[in-house]
Amino acid sequence: MKRILHVVTNTGHYADPAHPTGLWLSELTHAWDIFAARDHAQDIVSPAGGRVPLEPRALKWPLLDASARAWLNDPARMALLENTAAPDRIDPAAYDAIHFTGGHGVMWDFPGSAGLQAITRAIWERGGIVASVCHGYCGLLNTRLSDGTPLVAGRRLTGFSWTEEVLAGVAKIMPYNAEAEMKARGAQYRKAMLPFVPHVVADGRLVTGQNPGSAKATARQVVRQLTG
């Protein structure tokens, strides 16, 4: 049995409080289901600990699939999102992998979290897997290794593209261009030829998925890494 730490956002709105956002639920549930099917232990952490807001768009048809709906209808699982652990409650040595989920909220609270950076660095440097899906890669923007180099420098990865931001109609209200910021840190960003289709990039122990539709494939790649 392996242990996986999921990372979720505490941010419930864009810069304009009238524009809600939060965790894209299926990006958590798809991975959770795949890890649970293999009896891996799982925990959830957020930058501040406590409650996790949910992205409203992800809770509507056709984006609300059976996996996310089952979570919404399970009080025990919903309770996990009401009382997530803060980074200072986490022992990185207990985990074999860390998995950053998305939703636009992460763009605000993932990059500046020194606690998440420390956990990620510790898991990576002891040979663990670092994974992200969609906007979750924002959590890797400012993570540096013990020698001071960015974890993503020179590594192939993917995440929600700027083209997808434009097509989703939200580019003008983004706090930054995550794709461009990754490239500025030396990452070798990759994306699928078509937007919104599943796309996963694995560069050794770094496993990243481009968009919500990539959540299952990303989790399956993490499983392969854990059992390889």
Automatic annotation (TrEMBL):
CDD domains in the record: GATase1_Hsp31_like
InterPro entries reported for this sequence: Class_I_gatase-like (IPR029062), DJ-1/PfpI (IPR002818), Prot/Nucl_acid_deglycase (IPR050325)
All residue ranges annotated as the DJ-1/PfpI domain in the record: 79-224
Signal peptide, first to last residue: none
Top-rank taxon, per record: Bacteria
Pfam families from the UniProt entry: DJ-1_PfpI
SUPFAM superfamilies for this protein: Class I glutamine amidotransferase-like
Keywords (A to Z) from UniProt: Glutamine amidotransferase, Lyase, Stress response
Family note: Belongs to the peptidase C56 family. HSP31-like subfamily.
Protein known as: Type 1 glutamine amidotransferase domain-containing protein
